[in-house]
UniProtKB/TrEMBL annotation:
Belongs to the thymidylate kinase family. Keywords: ATP-binding, Kinase, Nucleotide biosynthesis, Nucleotide-binding, Transferase. NCBIfam families: DTMP_kinase. InterPro entries: P-loop_NTPase, Thymidylate_kin-like_dom, Thymidylate_kin_CS, Thymidylate_kinase. It comes from Sphingomonas abietis. This is Thymidylate kinase. PROSITE patterns: THYMIDYLATE_KINASE. It comes from the Bacteria. Residues 9-197 form the Thymidylate kinase-like domain.
Length: 207
Protein backbone atom coordinates (compact mmCIF):
# COMPACT_ATOMS: atom_id res chain seq x y z
CA UNK A 1 0.00 0.00 0.00
CA UNK A 2 1.34 3.45 -0.80
CA UNK A 3 1.84 5.69 2.17
CA UNK A 4 -0.74 8.46 2.58
CA UNK A 5 0.05 12.17 2.34
CA UNK A 6 0.49 14.39 5.37
CA UNK A 7 -0.90 17.94 5.17
CA UNK A 8 -0.76 20.57 7.92
CA UNK A 9 -2.69 23.84 8.13
CA UNK A 10 -0.96 26.64 9.98
CA UNK A 11 -1.42 30.28 10.91
CA UNK A 12 -2.43 32.46 13.84
CA UNK A 13 -5.75 32.49 15.67
CA UNK A 14 -8.87 33.06 13.59
CA UNK A 15 -7.36 32.72 10.10
CA UNK A 16 -9.74 29.84 9.24
CA UNK A 17 -7.65 26.71 9.89
CA UNK A 18 -10.42 24.66 11.52
CA UNK A 19 -12.94 25.67 8.85
CA UNK A 20 -10.51 24.82 6.07
CA UNK A 21 -9.31 21.55 7.64
CA UNK A 22 -12.89 20.27 7.45
CA UNK A 23 -13.45 21.57 3.94
CA UNK A 24 -10.14 20.23 2.66
CA UNK A 25 -10.79 16.79 4.17
CA UNK A 26 -14.23 16.73 2.51
CA UNK A 27 -12.77 17.77 -0.85
CA UNK A 28 -10.10 15.05 -0.66
CA UNK A 29 -12.72 12.43 0.28
CA UNK A 30 -14.79 13.52 -2.72
CA UNK A 31 -11.71 12.69 -4.82
CA UNK A 32 -11.75 9.15 -3.41
CA UNK A 33 -9.05 9.43 -0.73
CA UNK A 34 -9.36 8.07 2.80
CA UNK A 35 -8.75 11.07 5.08
CA UNK A 36 -8.04 11.38 8.78
CA UNK A 37 -8.81 14.87 10.05
CA UNK A 38 -7.05 15.84 13.27
CA UNK A 39 -5.72 18.77 15.30
CA UNK A 40 -3.08 19.98 17.72
CA UNK A 41 -2.61 20.21 20.56
CA UNK A 42 -4.59 16.96 20.70
CA UNK A 43 -5.56 14.34 18.13
CA UNK A 44 -5.02 11.31 20.40
CA UNK A 45 -6.25 10.45 23.88
CA UNK A 46 -3.00 11.34 25.62
CA UNK A 47 -2.50 14.51 23.60
CA UNK A 48 -6.06 15.70 24.30
CA UNK A 49 -5.30 15.32 28.04
CA UNK A 50 -2.14 17.41 27.60
CA UNK A 51 -4.18 19.97 25.59
CA UNK A 52 -6.24 20.72 28.68
CA UNK A 53 -3.06 21.26 30.73
CA UNK A 54 -1.77 23.66 28.08
CA UNK A 55 -4.87 25.72 27.32
CA UNK A 56 -6.61 25.93 30.70
CA UNK A 57 -5.50 27.67 33.88
CA UNK A 58 -3.56 30.80 34.72
CA UNK A 59 -1.29 32.63 32.28
CA UNK A 60 1.81 31.81 34.36
CA UNK A 61 0.94 28.13 34.89
CA UNK A 62 4.01 26.89 32.92
CA UNK A 63 7.47 28.23 32.25
CA UNK A 64 8.31 28.74 28.58
CA UNK A 65 10.44 25.59 28.67
CA UNK A 66 7.76 23.43 30.30
CA UNK A 67 5.23 24.70 27.74
CA UNK A 68 7.52 23.70 24.85
CA UNK A 69 8.08 20.25 26.36
CA UNK A 70 4.33 19.70 26.83
CA UNK A 71 3.60 20.62 23.20
CA UNK A 72 6.37 18.25 22.07
CA UNK A 73 5.04 15.47 24.33
CA UNK A 74 1.49 15.93 23.02
CA UNK A 75 2.82 15.85 19.44
CA UNK A 76 4.80 12.65 20.10
CA UNK A 77 1.63 10.87 21.24
CA UNK A 78 -0.38 12.30 18.33
CA UNK A 79 2.23 11.11 15.83
CA UNK A 80 2.57 7.64 17.36
CA UNK A 81 -1.11 6.92 17.95
CA UNK A 82 -2.89 8.76 15.14
CA UNK A 83 -0.71 10.18 12.36
CA UNK A 84 1.80 7.41 11.60
CA UNK A 85 -0.78 4.58 11.71
CA UNK A 86 -3.05 6.53 9.33
CA UNK A 87 -0.24 7.29 6.87
CA UNK A 88 0.94 3.67 7.01
CA UNK A 89 -2.62 2.54 6.21
CA UNK A 90 -2.61 4.76 3.10
CA UNK A 91 -4.84 7.56 4.43
CA UNK A 92 -4.23 11.22 3.91
CA UNK A 93 -3.87 13.11 7.19
CA UNK A 94 -5.07 16.72 7.45
CA UNK A 95 -4.03 18.34 10.71
CA UNK A 96 -5.09 21.71 12.12
CA UNK A 97 -1.60 22.81 13.38
CA UNK A 98 1.64 20.79 13.78
CA UNK A 99 5.34 21.43 14.50
CA UNK A 100 5.42 24.86 12.84
CA UNK A 101 3.00 26.16 15.49
CA UNK A 102 5.62 25.33 18.14
CA UNK A 103 8.34 26.99 16.06
CA UNK A 104 6.24 30.17 15.65
CA UNK A 105 4.62 30.37 19.13
CA UNK A 106 7.16 28.85 21.56
CA UNK A 107 10.07 29.79 19.26
CA UNK A 108 9.65 33.05 17.37
CA UNK A 109 7.22 34.55 19.89
CA UNK A 110 8.17 32.69 23.10
CA UNK A 111 11.95 32.83 22.91
CA UNK A 112 12.88 29.12 22.82
CA UNK A 113 15.47 28.52 20.09
CA UNK A 114 14.33 26.87 16.85
CA UNK A 115 17.22 24.39 17.10
CA UNK A 116 16.09 23.26 20.56
CA UNK A 117 12.47 22.90 19.40
CA UNK A 118 13.60 20.82 16.42
CA UNK A 119 15.65 18.65 18.79
CA UNK A 120 12.56 18.03 20.95
CA UNK A 121 10.65 17.06 17.80
CA UNK A 122 13.44 14.65 16.87
CA UNK A 123 13.24 12.99 20.30
CA UNK A 124 9.44 12.85 20.44
CA UNK A 125 8.41 12.29 16.84
CA UNK A 126 11.56 11.20 14.96
CA UNK A 127 11.44 14.54 13.18
CA UNK A 128 8.32 13.72 11.12
CA UNK A 129 7.42 16.61 8.79
CA UNK A 130 4.30 17.19 6.67
CA UNK A 131 4.51 16.62 2.91
CA UNK A 132 2.88 20.03 2.55
CA UNK A 133 2.18 22.86 5.00
CA UNK A 134 -0.51 25.36 4.05
CA UNK A 135 0.00 28.69 5.81
CA UNK A 136 -3.23 30.71 5.86
CA UNK A 137 -2.40 34.40 5.67
CA UNK A 138 -4.84 37.09 6.78
CA UNK A 139 -4.35 40.72 7.86
CA UNK A 140 -4.09 40.78 11.68
CA UNK A 141 -7.20 42.97 12.09
CA UNK A 142 -9.40 40.56 10.09
CA UNK A 143 -8.05 37.50 11.97
CA UNK A 144 -8.72 39.24 15.31
CA UNK A 145 -12.24 40.17 14.16
CA UNK A 146 -13.02 36.55 13.18
CA UNK A 147 -11.51 35.11 16.39
CA UNK A 148 -13.39 37.62 18.53
CA UNK A 149 -16.71 36.84 16.78
CA UNK A 150 -16.11 33.13 17.44
CA UNK A 151 -14.79 33.31 21.03
CA UNK A 152 -16.71 36.35 22.37
CA UNK A 153 -13.75 37.34 24.57
CA UNK A 154 -13.26 33.83 26.01
CA UNK A 155 -9.85 33.01 24.56
CA UNK A 156 -7.50 30.32 26.00
CA UNK A 157 -4.15 30.68 27.84
CA UNK A 158 -2.19 31.19 24.64
CA UNK A 159 -4.79 32.86 22.42
CA UNK A 160 -5.21 35.49 25.15
CA UNK A 161 -1.58 36.70 24.94
CA UNK A 162 -1.07 40.29 23.79
CA UNK A 163 -1.00 41.67 20.24
CA UNK A 164 2.81 41.95 20.24
CA UNK A 165 3.09 38.19 20.95
CA UNK A 166 0.68 37.40 18.10
CA UNK A 167 2.55 39.75 15.75
CA UNK A 168 5.76 37.79 16.49
CA UNK A 169 3.86 34.55 15.79
CA UNK A 170 2.81 35.88 12.37
CA UNK A 171 6.39 36.98 11.59
CA UNK A 172 7.66 33.58 12.70
CA UNK A 173 5.31 31.74 10.32
CA UNK A 174 6.32 33.99 7.41
CA UNK A 175 10.01 33.34 8.10
CA UNK A 176 9.47 29.56 8.27
CA UNK A 177 7.54 29.59 4.98
CA UNK A 178 10.26 31.58 3.23
CA UNK A 179 12.94 29.18 4.48
CA UNK A 180 11.19 26.02 3.23
CA UNK A 181 9.43 26.89 -0.05
CA UNK A 182 9.22 23.22 -1.10
CA UNK A 183 7.07 22.24 1.88
CA UNK A 184 5.15 25.49 2.50
CA UNK A 185 2.51 27.25 0.44
CA UNK A 186 1.23 30.62 1.64
CA UNK A 187 -2.50 30.95 0.93
CA UNK A 188 -4.51 34.18 0.90
CA UNK A 189 -7.25 33.45 3.48
CA UNK A 190 -9.41 36.51 2.64
CA UNK A 191 -12.78 36.01 0.98
CA UNK A 192 -15.43 33.30 1.04
CA UNK A 193 -14.48 29.99 2.67
CA UNK A 194 -15.22 28.08 -0.57
CA UNK A 195 -12.83 30.28 -2.52
CA UNK A 196 -10.10 29.70 0.07
CA UNK A 197 -10.67 25.92 -0.11
CA UNK A 198 -10.26 26.03 -3.90
CA UNK A 199 -6.92 27.84 -3.43
CA UNK A 200 -5.77 25.17 -0.97
CA UNK A 201 -6.72 22.27 -3.25
CA UNK A 202 -4.88 23.87 -6.15
CA UNK A 203 -1.61 23.75 -4.22
CA UNK A 204 -1.84 19.96 -3.76
CA UNK A 205 -1.88 18.98 -7.45
CA UNK A 206 1.67 17.65 -7.35
CA UNK A 207 0.86 15.34 -4.41
N1 LIG B 1 -13.49 32.65 4.78
C1 LIG B 1 -14.11 33.08 5.90
N2 LIG B 1 -14.75 34.26 5.91
C2 LIG B 1 -15.36 34.70 7.03
N3 LIG B 1 -15.37 34.06 8.22
C3 LIG B 1 -14.73 32.90 8.28
C4 LIG B 1 -14.06 32.34 7.14
N4 LIG B 1 -13.50 31.16 7.50
C5 LIG B 1 -13.81 30.98 8.81
N5 LIG B 1 -14.55 32.00 9.28
C6 LIG B 1 -15.08 32.18 10.66
O1 LIG B 1 -14.03 32.81 11.41
C7 LIG B 1 -13.93 32.21 12.71
C8 LIG B 1 -12.52 31.61 12.88
O2 LIG B 1 -12.38 30.53 11.97
P1 LIG B 1 -11.67 29.16 12.41
O3 LIG B 1 -11.78 28.22 11.26
O4 LIG B 1 -12.17 28.72 13.74
O5 LIG B 1 -10.14 29.68 12.54
P2 LIG B 1 -8.85 29.07 13.26
O6 LIG B 1 -9.08 27.60 13.38
O7 LIG B 1 -7.72 29.42 12.35
O8 LIG B 1 -8.74 29.77 14.58
C9 LIG B 1 -15.04 31.18 12.80
O9 LIG B 1 -16.14 31.76 13.45
C10 LIG B 1 -15.35 30.86 11.35
O10 LIG B 1 -16.69 30.45 11.17
C1 LIG C 1 0.09 23.11 18.27
C2 LIG C 1 0.44 24.36 19.03
C3 LIG C 1 -0.54 25.28 19.40
N1 LIG C 1 -0.21 26.39 20.10
C4 LIG C 1 -1.28 27.33 20.52
C5 LIG C 1 -1.94 28.09 19.41
C6 LIG C 1 -3.34 28.36 19.95
O1 LIG C 1 -3.28 29.55 20.72
C7 LIG C 1 -3.57 27.18 20.87
C8 LIG C 1 -4.38 26.08 20.24
O2 LIG C 1 -5.59 26.51 20.05
P1 LIG C 1 -6.48 26.16 18.77
O3 LIG C 1 -7.59 25.36 19.29
O4 LIG C 1 -5.73 25.69 17.62
O5 LIG C 1 -6.89 27.65 18.55
P2 LIG C 1 -7.24 28.51 17.27
O6 LIG C 1 -8.46 27.88 16.67
O7 LIG C 1 -7.52 29.83 17.90
O8 LIG C 1 -6.09 28.53 16.34
O9 LIG C 1 -2.30 26.61 21.17
C9 LIG C 1 1.10 26.65 20.46
O10 LIG C 1 1.39 27.65 21.12
N2 LIG C 1 2.08 25.75 20.10
C10 LIG C 1 1.81 24.61 19.40
O11 LIG C 1 2.72 23.82 19.09
Amino acid sequence: MTRGRFISLEGGEGVGKSTQAKALAAALRARGHAVVETREPGGSEGAEAIRRLLLEGSADRWTAGAEALLFAAARADHVAKTIRPALDAGSWVVTDRFLDSSLAYQGGAGGISIAQLRALHEVGSAGLLPDRTLLLALPAAEAARRAEARDRGGSDRIGGRDAAYHARVADGFATLAAAEPERFRVIDALGEADAVTARLIATLDDL
